[in-house]
């Protein structure tokens, strides 16, 4: 009996030893892994916090701006939350690494061009569309297809802002629309490219064009002296730039020899002023990007009668177009305006027919 009790006691002690060793091993392992996990998790949070802070440094989700005496009420501007904020539109300040994926931004040839028309609102269109987080555009006119084509496509690519996969690269040079060799050159770069053309009443456009030119040349002749052959006749001088540019259909026909009509979007310069949000719906749909730019991005500058952006790309606050925009036009005789309207009318009618859009010009 005593022998049996001794064996049972020995077995019990061995099992207890095994249990103690097992428990000690378990807690040792648990402590090791949990401490490393916590350390790694903490470090991970620090890394995320730092990268987020760096990426959104200086950004706030809400700010307030006064629109001046014409609108004394303070407007509450709600910015996108951090996970929807975009990289800067400027080439210099653009982030080179996408925060979530870590992918590098690259310079690419444009997938869309604003090709015209001068003095119709191309700068306004560019500024409005650059608010979109999926659009990146060169800030200045590159003039590659009309002046610097001999420098090659690689040079042109390097003039574009860096973009991430899925973003649209754009460029604006209004003189492309009226330059003879440009359509062929654009086709050689990308036969599937999308093109935007801003048009307005060609008579108003001609006066605006003259106003800009005369502001730089004080001894310029009167508008009517330049618009008509021999100054006082009823024959419109179609070689004069402000008139020639406004015969939109002639220039468009040259483009249609290389591209189908479906690759063009015609933007109303008048609507871009009176109802910019509606025009931007059409522009965003044409470019294949989500609807982002809307009425909440605009307010009216009652001094000039032009829409301004509550928050422009690369700007911390509201921004209007430059001082050179919205100049006061010189007084032109109504008889001169009427003669020009009669001249442009058949060309406008043909443009309406080809595009399927009635712009409603007088």
TrEMBL record:
Annotated disulfide bonds: 308-320
Pfam families the record matches: Sulfotransfer_1
UniProt cross-references to InterPro entries, sorted A to Z: NST/OST, P-loop_NTPase, Sulfotransferase_dom
MF annotations from Gene Ontology: [heparan sulfate]-glucosamine 3-sulfotransferase activity
Residue ranges occupied by any Sulfotransferase domain in the UniProt entry: 110-313
Catalytic-site annotation from UniProt: 119 (for sulfotransferase activity)
Membrane-traversing stretches: 16-33
Binding site for 3'-phosphoadenylyl sulfate: 119-123, 200, 208, 325-329
Keywords per UniProt: Disulfide bond, Glycoprotein, Membrane, Transferase, Transmembrane, Transmembrane helix
Compositional bias (Polar residues): 85-94
Region annotation Disordered: where it falls in the sequence: 83-105
PANTHER family documented for this protein: HEPARAN SULFATE 3-O SULFOTRANSFERASE-B, ISOFORM A, HEPARAN SULFATE SULFOTRANSFERASE
Annotated protein name in UniProt: Sulfotransferase domain-containing protein
């Amino acid at each position: 009996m005593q022998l049996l009790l001794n064996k049972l006691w020995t077995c019990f002690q061995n099992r207890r030893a095994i249990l103690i060793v097992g428990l000690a091993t378990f807690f040792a392992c648990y402590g090791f892994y949990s401490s490393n996990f916590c350390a790694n998790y903490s470090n991970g949070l620090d890394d995320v916090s730092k990268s987020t802070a760096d990426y959104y440094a200086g950004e706030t989700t809400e700010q307030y701006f006064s629109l001046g005496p014409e609108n004394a009420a303070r407007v509450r501007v709600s910015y996108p939350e951090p996970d929807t904020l975009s990289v800067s539109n400027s080439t210099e300040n653009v982030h080179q690494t996408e925060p979530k994926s870590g992918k590098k931004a690259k310079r690419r040839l444009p997938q869309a061009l604003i090709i015209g028309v001068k003095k119709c609102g191309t700068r306004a269109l560019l500024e409005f569309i650059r608010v979109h987080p999926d659009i990146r555009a060169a800030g200045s006119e590159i003039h590659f297809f009309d002046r610097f084509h001999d420098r090659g496509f690689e040079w042109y690519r390097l003039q574009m802002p860096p973009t991430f996969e899925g973003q649209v690269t754009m460029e604006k040079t209004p003189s492309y629309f009226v330059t003879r060799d440009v359509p062929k050159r654009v086709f050689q770069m990308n036969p599937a490219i999308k093109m935007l053309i801003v048009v307005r009443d060609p008579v108003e456009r001609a006066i605006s064009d003259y106003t800009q030119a005369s502001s730089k040349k004080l001894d310029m002749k009167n508008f009517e002296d330049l618009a008509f052959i021999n100054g006082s006749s009823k024959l419109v001088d179609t070689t004069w730039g402000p008139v020639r540019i406004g015969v939109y259909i002639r220039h468009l026909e040259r483009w249609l020899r290389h591209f189908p009509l479906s690759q063009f979007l015609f933007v109303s310069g008048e609507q871009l002023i009176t109802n910019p949000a509606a025009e931007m719906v059409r522009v965003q749909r044409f470019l294949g990007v989500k609807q982002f730019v809307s009425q909440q991005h605009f307010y009216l500058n009652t001094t000039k009668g032009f829409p301004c952006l509550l928050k422009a790309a690369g700007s911390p606050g509201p921004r209007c177009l430059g001082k050179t925009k919205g100049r006061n036009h010189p007084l032109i005789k109504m008889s001169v305006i009427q003669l020009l309207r009669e001249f442009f009318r058949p060309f406008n009618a043909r443009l309406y027919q080809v595009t399927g859009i009635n712009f409603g010009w007088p």
